[in-house]
Amino acid sequence: MGVERPAGRAAPPALAELRRVAIVPALNEEHTVPHVIDELRAFDPGLDVVVVDDGSTDGTAAVAAAKGAHVLRLPFNLGIGGAVQTGFRFAFEQGYDLAVRVDGDGQHDPGQLSRILEPVLRDEADIVVGSRFAAAEGGYRSTRSRRLGIRVLAAVVSRIVGQRVTDTTSGFQALNRRGIALFARDYPHDYPEVEATVMVFRHRLRLQEVPVSMRERGGGNSSITALRSIYYMVKVLLAIFVGLFRRNVVPQEGSE
Amino acid sequence: MTPLAVSIAGALASFALVVVVLELIRSRRLRERYALLWLVTGLVLTALSAWREGLNTIASWLGVRSYPPAVLFAVGILFILAVLLHYSTVISRLSDQNVVLAQKLALLEQRLREPTRT
Fold it and tell me: Does domain A18-244 bear CATH number 3.90.550.10?
């Protein structure tokens, strides 16, 4: 809490005036993480990078540190939700104004960061999500079952939040201080982006989608296999529907 | 045939289980991933209790002729076993992680106490 929005329609702050950090969750991605860090620096040399190593057994943490990134090493695998939230906690405690989330496997192209940063910089959104489906360009290739799952979740979420959401599973995001504060305090587990989308609306934060294209995964394996996606689907839908009946959507400080 | 009172009591009790589990999720005392098995248990037992002919049919498949509700007990026990086994795996993982946490904490503390000797 305690993050006030700038009053009036002052000129949007330039990127360079803001303390900004890229949160890069990574699990056994020593081959792609150095690239991602290089590309982030190429996009914006003033961008701090924090790599959250979610219990990798390879050299992910070492290569990230060698590139000069901050490294948060989790003592064991927490899953993507726990890992990403570690990054948000870091960003919140260190007082960053702006955070972007870019996956360590290289599927998010830091060259497209300016697109997802723009609405945040103009203070039109608290959270911006890069969507693979918002535009026709850059057709996203994936297995049929996975695309179907993403579409079903998008339809359900759109209906609940009353705004068209096309990609509820994208981890390519930009957040202002309000978004960072929310996710540092409360972030879903397991398969977090879908629930997080609903959460954002329940807290009356402004979410916007912008079209991006994503690349083939550079390395590592998708954490979602075919059988698991059914389990996740059920779990996520349950979480969403039960979540709708929560009265105090804002958990008390330190209630975890 | 199952006595009507047994069907009603069984359905009410299993439905109550479903309601309690949902309330526990809602109040954030139970995580969804640990609630799913309980929910399935509650729903299956509710269905078997309420659907009297179904219970009869399943009982006859299994050769249970004298007292069909015995199938209800069997299914209930089976699910409870599944939940318990699941929890045993969860507890095993938690205790492994707890060991790692304690070790990391000890190493960190040593570095804080003896900053020069690394």
Answer: yes
Residues of B within 8 A of A234 (CB-CB) are: 36
Answer yes or no: are the C-beta atoms of A110 and A32 closer than 8 Å.
no
Q: Do A245 and B26 touch (CB under 8 A)?
A: yes
What was the pLDDT predicted at A137? 47
| H or E, element range at A64 | helix A60-66
Instruction: Quick: pLDDT tens for B10-21.
Output: 999 999 999 999
How near does any CA of chain B get to the CA of A196, in Å? 15
Summarised one tens digit per residue, pLDDT across range A86-109 is 999 999 999 999 999 999 999 999
Position B27, amino acid = S
Q: Name the closest residue on chain A to residue B39, using Cα atoms.
A: A238
> Which of B32, B36, B43 would best serve as a mutation to test chain A binding (most A beta carbons within 10 A)?
B32
pLDDT at A255: 39
Q: How many CB pairs under 8 A join A and B?
A: 33
Spatial neighbors of B25 by CB under 8 A, at least 6 apart, are A238, A239, A242, B31, B32, B35
Confidence (pLDDT) at A231: 81
Q: Torsion angle of alpha carbons B70, B71, B73, B77, nearest 10°?
A: 140
Chain A neighbors of B90, CB-CB under 8 A:
none
> What is the C-alpha separation between A194 and A188, in angstroms, rounded?
9
Q: Which residue ranges make up each domain of chain A?
A: 18-244
Could you say which residues from 133 to 192 on chain A have a Cβ atom under 8 Å away from some Cβ of chain B?
189-190
For chain A positions 51-80, those within 8 Å of chain B (CB to CB) are 75-76
